[in-house]
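User: Okay, second chain of the day. Same drill as before: sequence in, structure tokens out.
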Amino acid sequence: MSVEALTLVLVIITFGLYVYVGWWARVRDTKSFYVAGNEIPTVANGMAVAADWMSAASFISMAGLIAFLGFDGTIYLMGWTGGYVLLALLLAPYLRKFGKYTVPDFIGDRFYSNSARAVAAIATVFISLTYVAGQMRGVGIVFSRYLQVDIAVGVLIGVAVVAFFAVLGGMKGITWTQVAQYVVLIVAYLIPAWAIAYKLTGIPVPQLALTFTDIARRLSDVQISVGLTEYVKPFTDMSALNVFAVTLALMVGTAGLPHVIVRFYTVPTVRAARWSAGWALVFIALLYTTAPAIGVFAKYNLIQSLNGQKLEEVKQIQWVEKWSSTGLLKLQDKDGDGKLTFTGDAKKNEVVIDKDIIVLSTPEVAGLAPFVIALVAAGGLAAALSTASGLLLAMSSAVSHDIYYRIMRPDATDQQRLRVARITIFIAVLVAGYFGMRPPGFVGEVVAFAFGLAAASLFPQIIMGVFDQRMNKEGAIWGILVGLVFTFVMIVLMRSPQILGTAKPILKDFLGINAQGIGVVGMILNFVVSYVVSRSTAPPPENIQHLLEDIRLPEAALGKKASPQARPAH
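Assistant: Same drill. Structure tokens below.
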């Protein structure tokens, strides 16, 4: 059976599983729709968190970025994993103890203001739409190669599947679907990694193969021989300032992602939230410690397979022919010698590879079995769809719960709120599909923009909302607005060719920081504006200050005091 046929079979089986789970876990009340009724088991929630957080950027794009950036590509490993630890240890338990449905819900009640709630909800929609565009792009790439359809058609297929189980099952359906998707994506990632590690180094464990063999040095030598920079040399593609800024933006952005934070509300207790965070770290580590090895193996295989080879012979190779048809792999004999030159000189380079195809193409380049190649495709789809569904729910919750119910219609019934939530998901998934067809960068880059927006808008308010009793509603509102608007405008100006269609970027960088790291500047502005405004205006009410004291105290120390949930928030 061909790769395409096997892929179609696996996609049908896995998509059928996701749709069945969504139908089985369908909900009829808002608590189940928003937070799965607070009844998800700890280990299952850890798997769902991992699937929700490990998006197409992690599965499809991260190893590709590491492959091409080398040492500098570790910004994604350090930023995303460090940010999750920050979220799990510093913020998640406190937010779970507060007992609200969403991040805007927390901000609205903590800062005793519907205006703050509305601004936070708008920020959530901006972040989620940017993030989900990357997921839809990943779905389109997988379908365009393995089902031989246009990327736009692939995006539309993904849109239809995500819309089904997200609209029907809400958080409960999404959670159990993500458990299934985690199993699919991690198996699909690890099996080819083990096979390629053994084939290149004789050691089947990728982490050990990368650490205890000379494969990274061999790749460095090969890159130097073709005119590329040394693979393990730092700060070759990015300055030290940019590396720091992007890493920090990804880290604090992770801690401000609304679709991940809401996951800690789906378990019954604060203790369960802590344990599910720990389990999620274990599940995440399986992929994140494997990605650097995949990046090295993939880059080494590609250079060895293409550089110096006869163009006509290479074009006959099946994987080259298939990926070339998608437009994501381009071969051109610029010097007319009939051979391909893979080099760092853009004028002489004859091999152009989209970074997003590295993980997906690696099993084919390495000559692995068709089943493994098809499994990787199914895994890439699972990663993209799991995160997309969580993001869509975050957007629908922000609109239906925080804007429609908490601000516009406090008397709305459960059925009315569910209707608005489902309509919101349907609209959001269509918008996400459009941006998936016309993304402003690679999957990993688009996702990095979302992290920058989260770092500049929600993260400072969550931190100060928990740890700064003097922080008030005026500071929160102005801080979010300044951070979000500044970061969004900077990203648009730096990515104007992709977003606005200009011939070249309107702005190259900001003080040496690129679009992926600009969220750090937005975050600093948010903190400064929030602090200054809050100290220049009236302090928050006493009941809010007592609320924060209770949130930060261990449960055992509260004794018979009222729980945070029981205290009035207005």
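The chain has 25 helices and two strands.

User: Thanks, on to the next one.
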